[in-house]
Amino acid sequence: KEQIAEVERFEAATPEALEAFRIKYLGRNGLLNDFFAAFKSVPNDQKKVFGQTINELKNKAEEKVNSLREALENGVEQLGVYGDLTRPAEPVQLGSRHPISLVKNQIIDIFSSIGFNVSEGPEIEDDWHNFTALNLPEYHPARDMQDTFFIQTNPDILLRTHTSSVQVRYMEGNQPPIRTISPGRVFRNEAVSSRSHCIFHQVEGLYIDKDVSFADLKQTLLYFTKEMFGKSKIRLRPSYFPFTEPSAEVDIYWGLNNEIDYRITKGTGWLEIMGCGMVDPNVLKNCGIDPEVNTGFAFGMGIERIAMLLHQIGDIRLFYENDVRFLEQFKSTI
Ligand code: PHE
To answer: Measuring from atom 2 of ligand 1, which residue has the nearest CA?
Structure first.
């Protein structure tokens, strides 16, 4: 009975192990021949049970040898060691990068090529880095421009509403020349719709050095829009941000070549893509940079908005639903 259990348990990893097993049980000097020899001296009243048991053992051992031999032979073929090397491989299911990552990486590549590095910072921020250092003191009405998710009040801890907070941190830790872009996730307490979400992504840029001018800003943004969209006409409309003076919104000339262009540009051909301006001297001072010596520009854009334009995506919510039918469509893009 013990031997039967052992036979049932046996597995062979190599043909050699299987052969050793066969010899042990079924070989000329194997266990089974010993048992058959012993059969003669078994008392008559036990002969029946003993005989049945050793027959069962013999059958089991033979079955095991045959089935393991077959498995080993098939195994070798599957490994392709002796099998058909020209046989096509099993198809591999490749994943794809998320469109937000794709567009973010494209933006990083473009600014890297003109000397910007990448800086990151925390998503949970204090009041100083998200507001006060950026020329938005307490009770400043412009704080209402960005509906904030507070985690704690007094002292205020919040989910950052823009990645300008990263630029504050960067200025606090580095002296000019500074050329950095800050991609990251930001949070605003807004109603979710097809065009806005309470979580989205930004890339903000900062350039500070001696003699940085508004002309530098415009040329940098023109270079970016050419590389990103293949469009070479931009315009800057006066605007307001507390941390830049002067400030502007950047429009690109998208054109009116088809119905989609007509719809997304509302018939004007122009499309707003980001905010920008010359860094306010107060902000530089707050961050330990001498505004008498240095000037700088900053800009900020939403990654979702740019991804929606590039890939003609009509609803921002698609980015966060993880529907594979949506995600699969970005397989061919690197
Ligand atoms: N921080 C602004 C926003 O979140 C964007 C911006 C950045 C505007 C830098 C001007 C300069 O909307």
So the answer is: 300
Amino acid residing at 105: N
Query: What is the CA(298)–ligand 1 centre distance, in A?
Result: 8
The type of residue at 281 is P
How deeply is 215 buried, as exposed, middle or buried, from its count of CB atoms within 10 A (0-12, 13-18, 19+)?
exposed
Predicted structure pTM score: 0.73
Ligand 1 centroid to 106 CA: how many Å? 20
Instruction: Give burial (CB, 10 Å; 0-12/13-18/19+) of 41.
Output: exposed
Candidate from 164, 182, 245 with most ligand 1 atoms within 8 A of CB, to mutate: 164
Question: Closest ligand 1 atom, CA of 275?
Answer: 8
Is the ipTM beyond the 0.95 threshold?
yes
Amino acid at 180: T
In a structure prediction context, what are the per-residue pLDDT tens digits for the chain, which is 334 residues long? 888 888 888 887 788 888 999 999 999 989 999 988 888 888 989 989 998 999 999 999 999 899 888 888 776 555 555 566 777 877 777 788 999 999 999 999 999 999 999 999 999 999 999 999 999 888 777 676 668 999 998 888 999 999 999 999 999 999 999 999 999 999 999 899 998 999 999 999 999 999 999 999 999 999 999 999 998 899 999 999 999 999 999 999 998 888 888 888 888 999 899 999 999 999 999 999 999 999 999 999 999 999 998 998 989 999 999 999 999 888 865 5
Q: Which strands sit side by side in the sheet containing 234-241, from one edge to the other?
A: 117-118, 178-187, 199-209, 295-302, 270-279, 244-253, 234-241
| Pocket probe mutation, ligand 1, options 170, 206, 243, max atoms within 8 Å of Cβ | 243
The CA-CA-CA angle for residues 77, 94, 105, to 5°, reads 145
Distance 247 CA to ligand 1 centre (A): 9
